[in-house]
Amino acid sequence: DKARSHYSKTVLVTAGVGAFSPNKLDAPGVTEYEGKGIFYFVKDKQLFKDKRLLIVGGGDSAVDWALNFNNWAAKVTLAHRRDVFRAHEGSVEELMKCGAEIKLFYEVKQVIGDGKWVKKAVIYDNRTKEETMIDVDSILVNIGFRADLGPIRNWGLEIRGREIKTNGRMETNIPGVYVAGDLAGQVDSVKLNLIATGYAQAAMAVNVAKNFIDPTAKIFPGHSSEMKM
Hints:
The chain is an alpha/beta fold. The chain is built from three helices and 15 strands. The protein folds into two domains: 11-18 and 149-218, FAD/NAD(P)-binding domain (3-Layer(bba) Sandwich); 22-145, 3-Layer(bba) Sandwich (FAD/NAD(P)-binding domain), CATH 3.50.50.60. 17% of the residues lie in helices and 28% in strands. Helix 1 (60-69) links the parallel strand 4 (52-56) and strand 5 (75-80). The mean pLDDT is 94.
């Protein structure tokens, strides 16, 4: 879609901690075969039917997909860079019993293909540096995500780490721009990233914004029990 301009006297930013994108594997051949056998998301489970699947990671996504594909793919190999999983304990116990090949302390060193699709992966033991080449039809990478503010970072807002600085009225350094939720970094306030907190901050921001647009409007809107129906 083409970019569009929307005119407003106020803007309320409720972008969580930013846009999430998957952490990428850093190994030769990975970039070349992204979308050609290397995936960071599962959009079509059918792609992995009766295939030799290498899953990289040790969190909930990696373990859950290993369990999900265990009787769907021809073979599931899970490579994790250490022997401690971040996934749910019950899921890890099930993983160890499911029959999938678990390669602990292993990382991907190289991805090899025929130019059209991935065919092999070189994995290595990060303790001994011993390398193993395995045949694969697909590689599913689940090694976490990173958050980024994206274009918001260039608005001229006062940013502290992953937060946008606000006062108690949810106002930023730019008049008419407000922030609520995880992205809000209120000065001299305890950070509490809860849905309830976000709702309260949004309510504050909306009512302050109304007063910004119409200075005669009250910031406190009143109670619903006081409304005449």
